[in-house]
Amino acid sequence: MRGSSHALIGGAAGMAVAYGQQADPVTAASLIGIGVLSGLMPDLDVNGKLSNTITSKKWIYGLMALIGALLAGDSAFSERGTQQWAGMMIGAGLLVLPRIFMKKRTVLFMTGAAILGAGFIMHETWILLMGIYIAAASRQPHRGITHSLIGLAFFGWIGYLLEQDLQMDGVFYTSLAGYASHLAADLKLLPMNRKGVKWLQPFSKKEW
């Protein structure tokens, strides 16, 4: 299934959650956006819409450089000891490394590593876990562990922590529903799919 279809279904999942809890317009728009992203997340393991956006050469240089400069500056003036040096080193890496390693999977892995480092420095567990997810997805074959119940549970954990951080009801359910919608839309029983999803991997290779 195409990325645009996954995005549409994920957004619909977010809309359904927003409708179910009678969310205000701002919250509803936020949940729809989270649903769209959740619906695209499993395909970070392939050259799909979301991964192509993240690794696009058109803007990756500038964005990574900006993040690197801000992180290095903040660490230099606001942190001390190990966290200061770690933040400055990660920031410097974001300024330099994207121009050296430009393979999409490498850039995606670097993005995940940078987000992981930012989560560590900011003491935000959901950001740290997101970094781990993105970095791990960059090393997976298509429809690997991201297309499994383990991937769903891990992303649901991120959504739960994000909801606690934002204090916005519905983020957890939207994250789960959006992600699960992707796995359901990739089922082999649907006529547009030549292959199915191994939901129980790595414990089973049965394709659904």
Write up what this structure looks like.
This protein has 208 residues and is mainly alpha-helical. 69% of the residues lie in helices and 0% in strands. It has 9 helices and no strands. It has helices at residues 3-20, 25-40, 49-54, 57-78, 81-96, 104-122, 125-137, 149-166, 171-185. Helix 2 (25-40) runs parallel beside helix 9 (171-185), helix 6 (104-122) runs antiparallel to helix 7 (125-137) and helix 8 (149-166) runs antiparallel to helix 9. The longest helix is centred in the N-terminal third of the chain and has 22 residues, at 57-78.
Q: How big a fraction of the residues is strand?
A: under 5%
Instruction: List how many beta strands DSSP finds.
Output: 0
Name the assembly state.
single chain
Treating each run of at least 4 consecutive H or I residues as one helix, how many helices? 9
What fraction, in percent, of the residue positions are helical?
Answer: 55-70%
H/E series = HHHHHHHHH
| Mean pLDDT level | 85
